[in-house]
Amino acid sequence: MSSLIEKLLARAADVKTAEVDADGITVRVREPSAAAHALFHGLNKQGRGDEAMAHLLRACVIDADGVPCLTDEQAKALSTGPSELVVPIAGAILEFVQRQKNADAPGADAVPDQPAAGAAAE
User: Fold this and answer.
1) Cβ-count burial of 31 within 10 angstroms (0-12 exposed, 13-18 middle, 19+ buried)?
2) Local structure of residue 104 (DSSP, 8 states)
3) Average pLDDT over residues 101-117
4) Helix (H) or strand (E) holding 8
5) By the 8 A CB rule, do 92 and 110 touch?
């Protein structure tokens, strides 16, 4: 296998996870796959927000072994739950995507009170 393929597959297997407090319940989540993220946004653009949220939760709420643990029915039920429960979970999942988007932006590696790398000087 080529070095490039090995690097790509190694990174694909290195899935980031986090724990989030959702209304007093500790929930473990993983970063969404590219496919899960694309489907989430596609469904949202079609006005199918409940379905989009259920899909995202189904793909990204994981057990202690890192395996998605919600059934389709459970994800649908959770997605329509109270916002104080669902918003922290979805927020933690989508934060992975936001961090990745911002990682390459000028100033993403800035140190407080110092000019950011790549940022225009004042």
Assistant:
1) buried
2) T
3) 52
4) helix 3-13
5) no
Assigned domain for 110 exists: no
Report the alpha-carbon distance of residue 59 to residue 6 in Å, rounded: 25
pLDDT beyond 50 at 111:
no
Q: Is 53 part of any domain?
A: yes
Q: Is residue 70 part of a domain?
A: yes
pTM over 0.85: no
Domain extent, residue 92, equals 32-97
Q: Which of 51, 63, 56 is nearest to 17 (CA)?
A: 63
As given in the structure block, the two tokens for residue 112 are 């407080």
Using one digit for the tens of pLDDT, what is the confidence trace for 74-96? Answer: 999 999 999 999 999 999 999 98
Q: Indicate the residue type of 117.
A: A
**Percent of the chain scored above 70 by pLDDT?**
83
Phi first, then psi, for residue 10 (nearest 5°) are -65, -45
Q: What is the spatial distance between Cα 21 and Cα 28, in angstroms, rounded to a whole number?
A: 9
